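step: validate -> pass
step: tokenize input -> pass
step: predict -> running
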Amino acid sequence: MKNLASIGIFGGSGFYKFLDDIEEVYIETPYGKTSDAIMLGTIANKKVAFMPRHGRDHSIAPHKVNYRANVWAMKEIGCKRVISPCAAGSLQREVKPGDIVFCDQYVNWTNGREDTFFEKNDIQHISAAEPYCPQLREIAIKSALELGFSIHKTGTVVVVQGPRFSTKAESAFFSKQGWQVINMTQYPEAHLVKELNMCPLNISLITDYDAGLVADCAPVSHEAVMKVFSDNILKLQKLLFKIVELTDDKKTCNCDNQAKW
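step: predict -> pass
step: emit ->
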């Protein structure tokens, strides 16, 4: 199965429809079923693998996603880099709906999720000090600036359990910590990518002001999130295509030396 693709993308179903010559591949994993098939296609003459993390019909809640199976499948087909675009809420007034944040840190506020491949005899303690690949982030930032998008080069995403949104008290607490972004899927996805020696990248598309506190607006709703996300789907597609185009095989990061396999 190796070498079917070098770059993997987790995200919504709107992305893979724009890949060329789609081929669906189902991967068996030691951790059960993946969210969906892997869709293989080509961008800028590079083989790319795409998987909708919630399933193509968006039927899998964030706390029910089989993150280990999904990440394992990407590794199994040969991916060296994994891009994780996601819809996210803003916790700060200056981070506006429609902006893109390339998070460089996360705070895990989830519970009960299977979040490591090291659980038997060969226990390893993998650093999460730099949870996202610095080299891939620089490529992503360059891509977004070339496209003229409104971006934030850094940010901390707090990952909540879901599927419910925050209370006003929770949102106020997160905002006061100075964190910029809130999301339900970045953990343990990013850390599992790191455990398998692949490079993780976060692309947070801001869809709302969480509980509405920092902008004195109505609290977030699922319908509002989906509308902003849909309105910006072409922006994300352009960004992903540009990142893939500018990414080559030369690696200056240390992501592939985190774990011994």
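step: describe -> The chain has six helices and eleven strands.
step: cleanup -> pass
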